[in-house]
Amino acid sequence: MPAARPLLPVLVAAAALATAGCGGDVPSTTSAAAAPPATAGTTPTVAQDDPVARLGRYAAGGRPATGARAGAVVAAARTYAIALRDHDDEAACAVAVGVDALLRAGGGPAGDCAGLLRHLANASQGPTTADVAALRRARVVIAGDQATLTVDAHAPLPLRRVDGRWRIDYGAFAPPTPEGRRP
Questions:
Q1: How far apart are CA 141 and CA 61, in angstroms?
Q2: Has residue 73 been placed in a domain?
Q3: For the segment 102-133, what is each residue's pLDDT rounded down to a tens digit?
């Protein structure tokens, strides 16, 4: 069985596209305010500005989750992965937040989640059925309304609880401002 690829490359591709200014002109309906990073109140260093390093701190101070708490996070990631695999932009966007923050941070125009995912579909291969199955092995850490989901040794996938539901947090890829907040 081939090794499962992480979902992170899809999000990293989103960050790269955002910094290149890709995206549509339609405002997003998934623009919940970005949660402040664990490094709030500090001036970002080069290491803090590294997206993978930021993800490692995304749910800093959190505790490993099990049972229903972990299940809710895994369910959101699974819904997202299946939607990407099936090229269902609407379903993927229904479980995503922070797209506007990511696009603005990259200096590009405001865009919508579906437009971003269409660009991603052209730039990278989405998750496979094996990737979706690998989510059963996920380790979930929750810190308040932020969580990370990690499969094997891959970089964590950031999720944020908005209105009681877990969402993939594209805003976690937006570089922090000098005040230590994401846009």
A1: 9
A2: yes
A3: 777 766 656 788 887 877 776 667 788 888 99
